[in-house]
Amino acid sequence: MPRSEFSLIRDYLTGLGASREDVRLGVGDDAALLQPPAAHMLAVSTDTLVAGVHFPEDAPVASIGHKSLAVNLSDLAAMAAEPAWATLSLTLPAPDADWLRDFAGGFDALARKHQVALVGGDLCRGPLAISVQITGFVPQGRALRRDGAAVGDHIVVSGYLGDAALGLQAWQGGERQASRTSPLIDRLHRPGPRVQLGLALRGLASAAIDLSDGLASDLDHLLTASGCGAEVALGQLPCSEAALRYAGTTAARQAALAGGDDYELCFSVPGWALPALAGIAADTGTPLSVIGRVVEKPGLRLRQPDGRLLPVSVRGYQHFSEEP
Ligand SMILES: [Mg+2]
Hints:
This protein is 33% helix and 25% strand. The chain is α+β, with helices and mostly antiparallel strands. The protein has two domains: 5-139, CATH 3.30.1330.10; 154-311, PurM-like C-terminal domain (Phosphoribosyl-aminoimidazole Synthetase, Chain A, domain 2, Alpha-Beta Complex). The strands form three sheets. A seven-stranded mixed sheet has the order 8-10-7-11-9-12-13, with helices on both faces. The protein has a four-stranded mixed sheet with strand order 3-6-4-5. Strand 12 and strand 13 (309-311) form a beta hairpin. The longest helix has 18 residues, at 61-78. The relative contact order is 0.16. The structure holds magnesium ion (MG). Magnesium ion is lined by residues 75, 78, 210, 212.
């Protein structure tokens, strides 16, 4: 017997995430009542995940819950904001209690890890889609933005790039259980947002963006906002051992440059801040790689292993591309 929206929300979506004192009234009324801290800005972001577009339709359900929150946390990380509150809007093809339980489990674990409280949500029927809105705090004037990069700054990325794109390739190719593909598939399904890194970069980074659509595309957004260009060394792009083993050097570097869904951070730092990065990498457990420099000439150019400097055609994932 189909269950009502209200009983499903009550049983599976109430009380998810951390309990926070600044939530004066959470799920259950017409709106949540939240107490922002003094002298802070609210950083607000939202992302929608659609089945078959943002995750494979047959992805593990708990990982869909994880990823729907992770992509939003990643946006706050890129702003150096401390996550606090989330709302969730779920569209489900059917009122499936098992699905909701597994989804809530994935969402809840990541929310608790980052001290996020779910403060509201709704449930309706339709093709599977998940919208999360997240709110975080950042002290006045301390947010990282895309428009602060300056000529001479170093360009840095966190973690390893391209794993998620290769993971999708492996998943779609049916290579799901092999030990050589599972680290890549895990990166696709369960991205780890770089929240601690973002907070550590306050006052050090000049600009930042998270990598959702691919390095070439997202770095280009940062450069355009900052009114400058960049030279990046292809050989400096950090590829994981799993990516190199699975795809080989050339394809792994291509995935690192153009593949989406990594949810790493890309940021610029002035030269004086560079020595601080080793300590931040150690404190946050995050590999950091310097991949290039900000230059005056607009556009992104790639230093090839043979020394040539070639322009990069920016081709990240675009939902409304006019090309076939
Ligand atoms: Mg983003």
